[in-house]
Amino acid sequence: VGISYALIISLIISKCCTYLLNWGWADNKINQLLVARNCGLSIPVSFITNIDSKARDFIGSKSSIFKTLKFPIVDFGNKGVGMINTSLIERSMIDPICANISITANFFQKYVDKLYELRIHVIGTDIIAVKIESQENSEAIVDWRLADFNDLDYEEVDLPDVVRKSILKFMSIMGLNFGILDMIVTKDQEYIFLELNPNGNWV
Asked: Which of 16-20, 31-35, 148-152, 192-196 bottoms out in mean pLDDT, i.e. has the lowest?
């Protein structure tokens, strides 16, 4: 009996440790973008830099957004804990952004106009895709999470087979059985991968 329990415990620990290792690797947004592209998913034009001139060239040429490289929850000390949402960069923001850009790597992407957003839940080989009508709410146009969730319309939708296959291949390479993907659909019906949350919440 003791050996049986030891075997069961060792298997559980093995599975948990493997999941944690996969989760840590999969939570890296750069890894996500590279794997997504290699799996046939479209991704936004992305740029990471801590060089002033390079950043100005990128964000000054076309509408761009700023995103965090890791989990967007930040501890501001005495001011409490806050969330850094995806932000559209206005021209008036370029100088303040670049003033301290050398401190750390900064993650920029070209802004993509979208028809709607998708929150895609993957459980094993099952995929549940939820359409979010973000463009009908002024607070949700850039980042739907900024709006009151109760003010948005949701609808379960089917994904094209080619997108489904790419998503399952992506999850397999990431080593995950569960994850939530954020994607957008453009007016040209192009499906674009944004990011993966390996421990996301249900809509």
From this structure: 16-20
Distance CA 167, CA 176 (A): 11
Extended beta strands in the chain, E state = 46-49, 64-67, 73-75, 81-83, 87-88, 106-110, 116-123, 126-132, 154-157, 178-185, 191-197
Taking only the tens place, the pLDDT of each residue in 75-107 is: 666 766 666 777 788 877 888 888 888 888 888
Do 101 and 159 share a structural domain?
Answer: no
Identity of the residue numbered 192: I
What is the pLDDT of the chain when averaged over all its residues?
82
67-94 burial, b for 16+ CB within 10 Å, e for fewer? beeeeeeeeeeeeeeeeeebeebeeeee
Residues 57 and 106 in one domain: yes
53 phi and psi angles, rounded to 5 deg: -65, -40
In a domain, 3, yes or no: no
Q: How confident is the model at residue 145 (pLDDT cuts 50, 70, 90)?
A: confident
Domain boundary among 94, 110, 126: 110
pLDDT over threshold 80, residue 111 = yes
For residue 185, CA distances in Å to 9, 10, 38, 116, 179 come to 44, 44, 19, 6, 19
pTM, two decimal places: 0.80
Same domain? For 62 and 147 the reply is: no
